[in-house]
Design brief:
Elements: E1 3-7, H1 13-26, H2 38-45, E2 51-57, E3 62-70, E4 79-86, H3 95-109, E5 114-121, H4 125-133, E6 137-148, E7 152-162
Parallel strand pairs: 4-5
Antiparallel strand pairs: 1-2, 2-3, 3-4, 5-7, 6-7
Length: 163
């Protein structure tokens, strides 16, 4: 898939929300209420100490998004956390893996020394496959950490990669 990645700007939000909303409403990968408001979703996605990016296809449409931010504060702020969403029409084309790899480059440039995902839902096989392709490893699991809308309580993986 041909795409470009750039830092997200305020005027990108309507397109970003069009990508995020279906994923948040599905309730199978992000720890947000399925009826989350747009304003609450924006506060969750965009943080003052973070970096947000958009991936655009050849026609200029936003097809993927990600955030980077410190996973912890103070002495733990050298490890970042990241989150990704790919538009449904762009899934299955390697974009998630490419975004993860690109975000790792961005994280290195920002001085982060590792990337950690705190809640990768165990039933999200496509994401797990993409993150492993990008060099992330499962380092642990939290039993029953996620209430999946159709599968009930499922485990969540913790994934990590040194940068």
């Amino acid at each position: 898939m041909n795409f470009t990645v750039a830092q997200q700007h305020e005027d990108d939000w309507p397109e970003v929300w069009r990508v995020l909303e279906p994923a948040f409403r599905a309730g199978d990968s992000y720890p947000l209420p399925r009826d989350v408001t747009e304003a609450s979703a924006k506060r969750y996605w965009i943080k003052q100490d973070g970096y947000n990016a958009v991936a655009r296809d050849a026609g200029g449409a936003v097809v993927g998004v990600y955030y980077l931010r410190p996973d912890q504060g103070g002495p733990g702020d050298h490890i970042c956390n990241a989150g990704y969403v790919v538009a449904e029409a762009a899934r299955g084309k390697g974009l998630a893996t490419a975004l993860c790899r690109q975000s790792q480059e961005q994280a290195r440039a920002m001085g982060f020394r590792g990337m950690k995902f705190n809640l990768v839902v165990s039933t999200n096989a496509a994401a797990i496959k993409a993150w492993k392709r990008a060099g992330m490893e499962i380092i642990g699991a939290v039993p029953g950490a996620f209430r999946h809308p159709t599968r009930g309580t499922v485990d969540a993986h913790i994934m990590f990669k040194a940068l």
